[in-house]
Amino acid sequence: QVQLVESGGGLVQPGGSLRLSCAASGSGFSFYAMGWYRQAPGKQRELVATITGAGNTNYADSVKGRFTISRDNAKNTVYLQMNSLKPEDTAVYYCVADKYSVPPPTYWGQGTRVTVSS
To 10 degrees, the CA torsion angle through 55, 61, 62, 64? Predict the structure, then answer.
């Protein structure tokens, strides 16, 4: 069983930056595929970024060049660095994990809210 706890959300102005963190419990973290989803009000959930145990990454076109996913296996933590934020990035961001691949994820965090507004 893996538990995921996100942090780092908040209110930021357009053009600003935030870094989300996701702390994972359980063993074998370094082998797990990890990722971030987001869900904006009234919209479908969107896969934002993924990272494999080997460190290979993928991004949604909407965030490519602005967001960076990374992991620190010594700390059992995955990060999402978000730069050049836009109002359309406003959403609840969820950390996810799976023993094999994302998508689809087996484990979900509780979510952290990001609001981009002036």
Answer: 40
